[in-house]
Amino acid sequence: MLQHFDPKQFINKKIDPDKDYGTPISKNSGTSEQLITLHIDGVEIAVPPGTSVLRAAALADINIPKLCASDNLEAFGSCRLCAVQIEGRRGYPASCTTPVDAGMQVTTQNEKIGKLRRNIMELYISDHPLDCLTCPANGDCELQDMAGAVGLREVRYGFDGHNHLESEKDTSNPYFSFDPSKCIVCSRCVRACEEVQGTFALTIDGRGFDSKIAAGQDDAFIDSDCVSCGACVQACPTSTLMEKNVIEMGQPEHSIVTTCAYCGVGCSFKADMKGDKVVRMVPYKGGAANQGHSCVKGRFAFGYATHKDRIKEPMIRDSIDEPWRAVSWDDAMSFAAKRLKEVQAEYGRESIGGITSSRCTNEETYLVQKLIRAGFGNNNTDTCARVCHSPTGYGLKTTLGESAGTQTFDSVKYADTILVIGANPTDAHPVFGSMMRRRLREGAKLIVADPRKIDLLNTPHLKDAIHLPLRPGTNVALVNSLAYTIMSEGLEDKAFITSRCDDKAFIKWQAFITEERNSPEAMESVTGVAATDVRKAARMYAEAGNGAIFYGLGVTEHSQGSTMVMGIANLALATGNIGREGVGVNPLRGQNNVQGSCDMGSFPHELPGYQHVADDEARGRFEAAWGVKLDDEPGLRIPNMFDAALAGSFKALYVQGEDIAQSDPNTHHVEAALKSLDCLIVQDIFLNETAKFAHVLLPGSTFLEKNGTFTNAERRINRVRKVMPPLAGKEDWEVTVALSNALGYEMSYSHPSEIMDEIASLTPTFSGVSYARLEELGSIQWPCNEQHPDGMPVMHVEDFPIGKGNLAITEYVATEERATRRFPLLLTTGRILSQYNVGAQTRRTENQTWHDEDVLELHPHDAQERGVREGDWLGISSRAGHTVLRAVISERMQPGVVYTTFHHPGSGANVITTDSSDWATNCPEYKVTAVQVEKVTQPSVWQKNFADFNEKQQGHLRSGRRNNETAKQ
Amino acid sequence: MSMKIFLPRDTTTLALGGEKVVKAIRTEADVRGLEIELVRNGSRGLFWLEPMLEVQTQNGRIAYGPVEASDVAAIFDEIFNPGLDSELSEGNTGDAHPLALGNPEEIPYLKNQQRLTFARAGITDPVSIADYLAHDGFKGLENSLALNSQAIVDEVKASGLRGRGGAAFPTGIKWQTVHDCSADQKYIVCNADEGDSGTFADRLVMEADPLMLVEGMIIAGVAVDATQGYIYLRSEYPVAYQIMNEAIANAYAAGYLGEHILGSDKTFHLEVRLGAAAYICGEETSLLESLEGKRGMVRFKPPLPAIEGLFGKPTVVNNVLSLAAIPFIMEKGSQAYADYGMGRSRGTLPFQLTGNLKQGGLVELAFGPTLRELVDNFGGGTETGLPMRAIQVGGPLGAYLPASQWDTPLDYEAFAAAGAVLGHGGVVVFDESVDMTEQARFSMEFCVAESCGKCTPCRIGSTRGVEVIDKIRSGNNVAANLALLDDLCDTMIDGSLCAMGSMTPIPVKSAFKYFSEDIALAHASSLAQTETQ
After folding, report:
1. Model-level pTM?
2. Is the separation of the CB atoms in B260 and B266 below 8 Å?
3. What is the ipTM of this complex?
4. How far is B168 from chain A (nearest CA, A)?
5. Mean pLDDT over residues A739-752, rounded?
6. CATH architecture of the domain formed by B341-431
7. What is the architecture, at CATH level 2, of domain B3-111?
8. Domain B436-532 class in CATH
């Protein structure tokens, strides 16, 4: 949002994200057309009411000295450096805490003000080490800058007074150090922890001169509640809180703005560089998704990019029992192409396929599916969304007509009730979790439907909250009883239903949903949630004003995942919570570009932009552009590929940047399928679990090594910019191009922007997207075309792509995975903050400090029944397999439900998960597996085999690398 | 009929052994088989006479003090003269005992005061509704309930009452601001975090006449449409906490608090909250932070607490004495209050005489007499017998006044003109043995101990201030350090966030300005100390 001010030459100047305006944009900005006019140092300025004098001045490039003020924090008024004089007012008010007034005459510089500022600075420096030249903040220190700005020339107090110079450093956090001897107690870190991150881990201990920053109850940072988001480090004006990287490497010399490659929030970061080395990643204030905030992963866990395990050269082998042989790119490509052709010659056109990556860029994903459809000549393409959000695509397309979330993240600022279903935002989407927490602190109500008591329910200063701790697998029963309550208590939005929903569908749905069997009372025995709570929650959502739903994999990864997505859309449609700020249906997408990989035509039945392969008109356009005839039949989904592989009809697979061997369910089954392939081509940055079964290993490039775009969970297309050269010489899209060319299907691009231009020319929802437009706008939320030239932040404002909203019948059908005498517990899986997905990246960083093994969480009751104590080895068995994890006893769990993560391959979490899956999309039912748990003394057989196999494959890799070293010599 | 005997239950009396006296009275009555009614009243504020025992007679009360437990038997001998049950025999006026004081109302110290706020102090049982009603209690509330809210605010404005916490902001204007805000909830917060050295008037209100404060707060609530009140009481006042809570419970039971006050449609709830032992929480914004359960740190203004106060809602924050003045104003009318005082300082101020004086205690006077008159007419000379040299008025942030300034009238404006403050009415007297550079150091050190640490001038400045004063006192580069101290004081005055930092220089500067001869003396004494070591 622009803040307008005079003189006129500034009127259209954008806010500069690299400048700190001292205080946040006024809350009245945008809501009030009336501007307040005042004079600062004789310059006439007009700003929205509520703007601070400090900010008003900064907008006119009158830069008042400041230390405690920062425009991502509420004004605090403690440093007193921004004192000014205002005509008609007494004394020297702090400009940060003084709102503008009409006709105000402000003086920011004169002799008296100068002296006051100098004297305040003199006090600061009387308790500060004089080691500027050897200080890590040298060159990036606001205290130093301000001392210079106020012209401090001497410290008359001397340096022998009471001071904090001997304070002990805390280096317990792996990424940053805390040196209290440099601290000026501006409280910016404390305020950032509260206001930006919402963790409240920091405080001021003691008072007066003894005031000092303390983590927790004066603990070491690592032992406190600190989640290492980095907000405090970013806020610190001195070197008190400082990245260890900067301490070791010195100040960066240039910066490049790019997009984080972890979760679906899609945070913008400034990669602060020294040559081609990343010194640090600093969240970029101009990033529309994260607005200057970050989490421990994006902010700090980038060291994997230069980890010694990186694959730096192409490698091939004839069989997985052989050591790898490092070869040239050309040799690797001819080897791969020859194999693929041989397989197709022997087993037919449909015997090969590929998997696109939700971690790679839109352009790369687009090319992989293009290679498969045009080069392989079939539609055997799929992506990891299959195992996460495919039901979102199906469910939302059916009900709302578009396969994506309806809102911006920012929209949560206007939500009055927030309903979170099967998502854990503070761990899995931490930056958005912080935005949510901010809104909850402001008073929004919270409903959490989750088997576990997730951290969001522990939000400091949370007001009204309801937890609906349902049994895993009963989502649809719960959402139906919520809808029943809304309809039977007359809480629906009749006007919205009449004007925006399809009549026939609604009448059918109404008849279904108001059947007594869907009532909270009838469903209580199924869900395990008290009917009174369900009714209370339904009212809280329906009567909120703005009710917003956010959901995650706890919704989709079920046998009724697609049904549940539709049930959620039904709720929003029935209550009119769609089509404006503060409402909507918002899937929290797990991976950085899972939205993009779906948009780019990764699914076997859909061309880019969700255009069906059977649609002759759409397919015709692609055929014309790509110069080949395309198959009009959908190809194989990932589970179909495995089945076909085991049946002997599917023999070769090209996998770009995905680790199906670790992430897909029923590991035994997946491994058997991979072993049966004649040719497995894996393109990845590491020897991942899948690569251990591969014949061709193509080095991938990290997000730091390439140009492209990612699309986040709010449909926001963000630029990814290359900050260092690819380690193995090729960006991922170049590898696909080379493979395609080797196969004989010509591809020729000199830059990913050309790929985007091709996408835009073929995809109606992307027709307005180009790199030039992205540079101009910063980011674009699709659809972006003639009707919406700047993209579309909130969808379905006027109507739906299918015209009217379509309420769908959502009959609850119990999953076949249910607790039995043999498997009396239900296992559900999830994420934790410090590790990301299969852990390939985060396990190769210091994030291991927080979570170096997956554990099994269980309720004290279940533990006691089995004589389990904290830390015991537990054998977990399901009908699919058996693995062993350590026990953690936790009241977050409900009795009968156990929980684990799958960040470590050796844990074998997916050895236990079954091949049960969503009826519509085959999305695996990761969230419900019937298990038994018992105390054991050793790892499982699978784990032992895994360890042996891993050791063998690592040996193959080492010898491949060694051979290469020898060859080079 | 049993004999009514009074012995105060306030903190001062207890500190002076009041409980032992009570025990002795009970024992003595038992031994003699006498039926007595022992009333635990509040102190009249004549602290040098506490514990002061009073006896109800046909001819009014007679007093004895300061009484020790060992005096009780002799006093009983006198008041229970053989042949008499409950009344003194004729001819025995009860003043034969050496501690006899006669009718306490006739003691000049009390008689010469103008007690409007403290009219009931020491007379009634502080927690008795009946006693309170019998002494004109709740009349102000009754009158207020008959008026509309604006009329109450107007009455308070017309009285000229100014904030008695020290800032002297017109109470009626503050009320008007809150009155004019529309909000779903407003609050009345009573600042009872009485932390100024040498002050005790708030405590005396709460211990001697707590129902007056309750009444004042209810009226405030009615006037600005606030339904919830909090008394933020310093935790160092456990006795006041006890008495205040008893009074509030009784007021609830009698229908003065809660819903439908006196059958009206008005609601007012009241609770006492204990402070967290920080001087800074007497600063209104820190107080609000603390009351909200947070760390006691100063908030910047604006927004004014009247507009965004407790939990972000419009809030009247008034000192105990301000609120305690309200029942009188609403009972007798604004003019009756405004008739007292001088200039823009209307009504009375309860002065608290402490320090090196024979007769410490509470002196409620209309504004107007000089400081010298106050101290001379009531103080009874220094405890040590040495001549007086300096008087600090207005708490630890008030100026030290030399004799040349003692003729300043007790008036907000006159004191301000003299570079001093009346503040909360604390008066601390020093005799000629005082080293005023040490007092200057003490004032700065007080800021070191009590600074919340939020703003830089106060947080670091106070510590540096003590160090600079130490250098001056030890003769180290005196001229340069005096100049530096002056600069530092200006920095604290101009740069501090609240009065804690910006007023600390007042006593410091006054000590160096009016008692500069002590600098050389301090140096000499530090040299002497070094030599003896």
Report:
1. 0.93
2. yes
3. 0.92
4. 17
5. 96
6. Roll (3.10)
7. 3-Layer(aba) Sandwich (3.40)
8. mainly alpha
